[in-house]
Amino acid sequence: MPTDVIMPQMGESIVEGTITKWLKKPGEQVQRDEPLFEISTDKVDAEIPAPASGVLKEIKTPEGTTVQVNTVVGLIDEAGAATATAPQPAQNNIQPAPSAPGGKETETPTYLREAPGAAHGGTADEPARGMEAAARSQETVIEFPKGPEEEEDGERVRSSPLVRRLAREHEVDLREVTGTGLGGRVTKDDILRFVEQHPAGVPAIPLPSEPAVGRPAAAAAQAPAYQTGTAAPTMPAAQPAAPRPAGMADEIVPMTPMRKKIAERMVESKRTSAHVHSVYEVDMTRIVKIRERRKDDFERRTGSRLTFMPFFCRAAIHAIRQFPIVNSSVEADNIRYHRNINLGIAVALDWGLIVPVLKNAEEKNFLGLQRGITDLADRARARKLLPDDVAGGTFTLTNPGNYGQMFGLPIILQPQVAILGVGNIKKQTVVLTDENGMDSIAIRSICHISLGYDHRVIDGAIGDQFLREVSDYLQNWNEDLG
User: Fold this and answer.
1) Which residues are catalytic?
2) DSSP string for residues in 365-394
3) Which band of pLDDT confidence, cut at 50, 70 and 90, is reported for residue 352?
4) Which label site among 124, 205, 227, 280 has the fewest CB atoms less than 10 Å from its CB?
5) Domain that holds residue 11
6) Which segment, 101-105, 201-205, 400-404, 406-410, is predicted with the most confidence on average?
7) Beta bridge mates, 4
8) How far is residue 159's CA from residue 149's CA, in Å, rounded to a whole number?
């Protein structure tokens, strides 16, 4: 008897999940506990392991489909003798997308797929099935030549649709770009850095990830068409990028499940909380010197890399103890003061943003904070977080300064009432006044921190005093890094 593959319940409050990617295709061998498919829920994105060893006999629920928990989404033939069947709900393996205005269903373009064959069984030598569906309507099958982001073995350079669009705009061959993302993925920062270092660009070849499927006829007509069974012609030398034709149709890409959830949460928060922001300037010179002097020894002694985030976490915990209203939440006409300080640490991912929670942070020493932050960030990027890892936060820190931003004005994560934003640490000239009242000009490492808070329960005076407490604690750091 085949083994059912079911949509798991990732927490008590989770009632449904969206299959974002199948990691195996029908007919492929799978091992028990081997990652089989990826899901997205209200809480986390996760890889779901195979419940048994055998052959993936059937995929009942295609990618992009949201189903209730405990729904059978696939079958595994433990004997490995059954004939593999293709997914039934989605013809030609075109992923279903959210309903468009007016109730009409839209189709996810083929170029949104992770790689040829990664989703439902195509290979690098086969035309994308979505392209076949569009071509059959014109009694012509379109076959595109291999593009520069594909290696000889058919594996595509790992990148997002945004990165591939930037590569086309700047005529960059993605194989020339060193990816720093998870598993060698080429990120937006990687492509922008490459363009900055190579202004002239690298000649580009039309990418097969941007077929005419799902585009208006005017745009589709510009795609090269080759008859099936004929060899792909030799690509001509790349010409300078032509100006964008007037009236050329824009590209419409459905939101991912994670992006839709982020959008819903942010709009909900803005409607719920009366947002106010305060910004403080912090002299981080002392901490910068401490970190520079001790980071090598810290890593050698503890096995953990020394970052700036635990310094800010420790300062936030200290300030929360002085102003516990910042660690509260609103319940109707009541204010709940949380006994524990559960710090949410915002983590930017290639595919979105997630906020895992460091529980009982007030009980941890500096090393415990650093290890906890590193563990949560690593598991977030590897899709290994559990629902409990992103639940129960009482106060959040976000670090837009990691990308060079002076400071940000972040949105509160409900049902919390405050969020601390950490800006870029940058050397600046400042005026210092000594104990005798004498002024002097010095070069200091300056950081701007911001507090977004709910004015329903936190007054401006409290918000400012909280930031001053954080600032004073950082500027007069005297804690051990143990």
Assistant:
1) 455, 459
2) -HHHHHHHHHHHHHHHHTT---GGGGS--S
3) confident
4) 227
5) 1-89
6) 406-410
7) 75
8) 9
Structure tokens at 1: 């008897």
CATH number at residue 1: 2.40.50.100
> In this structure, what token pair is assigned to residue 218?
């005017």
- Whether 264 is in a domain gets the answer yes
Structural domain count of the chain? 2
The strand pairing partners of 16, in sequence order, are 68
CA distance 305 to 236: 48
- Tell me whether residue 61 is in a domain: yes
> 62, 89, 116 — which closes off a domain?
89
User: Which of 63, 89, 115 lies at the terminal end of a domain, its last residue?
Assistant: 89
Q: Which of 222, 208, 127 is nearest to 164 (CA)?
A: 208
Enumerate residues 6+ apart whose C-beta is below 8 A from 75: 2, 3, 4, 5, 56, 57, 58, 60
Domain contains 298: yes
Q: CB–CB of 316/470 below 8 Å?
A: yes
Q: If you average pLDDT over every residue of the chain, what do you get?
A: 76
Across 127-141, 148-162, 186-200, 322-336, which has the greatest mean pLDDT? Answer: 322-336
Instruction: Let me know if residue 283 belongs to a domain.
Output: yes
The whole-number pLDDT of residue 109 equals: 42
